[in-house]
Amino acid sequence: MAAPAVEGATVTALRAVLHRVRLAAERSGRRADDVRVVAVGKTKPASLIDQLYDAGHRRFGENYVQEIIEKAPQLPEDIQWHFIGHLQSNKVKALLTAVPNLTMVEGVDNEKVANNLDRVVSNIGRQPLKVLVQVNTSGEVSKSGVDPSECLDLVKHVKRGCPNLEFSGLMTIGMPDYTSTPENFKTLYNCRAEVCKALGLIESQCELSMGMSGDFEKAIEMGSTSVRIGSTIFGPRDYSKKK
Question: Keywords for this entry (predicted)?
Fold first, then answer.
């Protein structure tokens, strides 16, 4: 009897998050539909994702290649999968071949991984893959992402040198204790302004993926168009299952 109770709680948690997203969007003068919610199931079983799918949710994310490779075949094909965070170049082929419904990679942080993604997409003959460039807005050495000063150059490389990738915007992951979150978000916002001005892009068509379980409402208020919610929906992580 315990498992259904946990799964029911997960669906309830998702609905609560969507309500909070709607309120935050309204506070920033936008609609809830303007903000994408990616439910991140890191370390959680496919059965919980399936429960959220049955409740109507379609956008899910994973942080580990092995996890998404294992889960995706167990779940409906119309799920829109996001790979989130640093992607090792040697795992690009395995990811793209195993997850044909991969919608986006949120975490292109260097030219090498961009080139590998571009080549594999071409080789397997799939539609162009949407990508977000990851920016290290907190300056932490342990964090992946390009320095804000190098963001424009990487975006130019993706747009001009990777015809099988579709540059869709920027993403960042804030500091663990959220003490500098507003600054992180402002930095990404400024990076988008610089990129759009230099490349003649419309800002509304350049996504800002920022905000997680502890700070997504503030992120939305500061312009985020996509938030990545994990533990607030799924509960605490079991990192003993880390892949």
Answer: Pyridoxal phosphate
Q: What is the pLDDT of residues 9-24, one digit of tens each?
A: 999 999 999 999 999 9
Q: What is the per-residue pLDDT across 180-190, written as a single tens digit (0 to 9) for each?
A: 578 899 999 99
Residue 186 lies in a domain: yes
Report yes or no on 3 lying in a domain: no
Confidence check: pLDDT of 98 > 90: yes
Task: Kindly write down the DSSP assignment for every residue of the chain, as one continuous string.
Answer: -HHHHHHHHHHHHHHHHHHHHHHHHHHTT--GGGSEEEEE-TTS-HHHHHHHHHTT--EEEES-HHHHHHHGGGS-TT-EEEEES---GGGHHHHHHH-TTEEEEEEE-SHHHHHHHHHHHHHHTPPPEEEEEEB--S--TTS-SB-GGGHHHHHHHHHHH-TTEEEEEEE----TT-TTHHHHHHHHHHHHHHHHHHHT--GGGSEEE---TTTHHHHHHTT-SEEEE-HHHH-S--GGG--
The CATH number of whichever domain residue 39 belongs to comes to 3.20.20.10
240 vs 225 pLDDT, higher one = 225
Retrieve residue 2's tokens: 């315990």
Please indicate, yes or no, if residue 24 is contained in any of the structural domains: yes
What is the number of structural domains in the chain? 1
Per-residue pLDDT averaged across 166-188, rounded?
Answer: 83
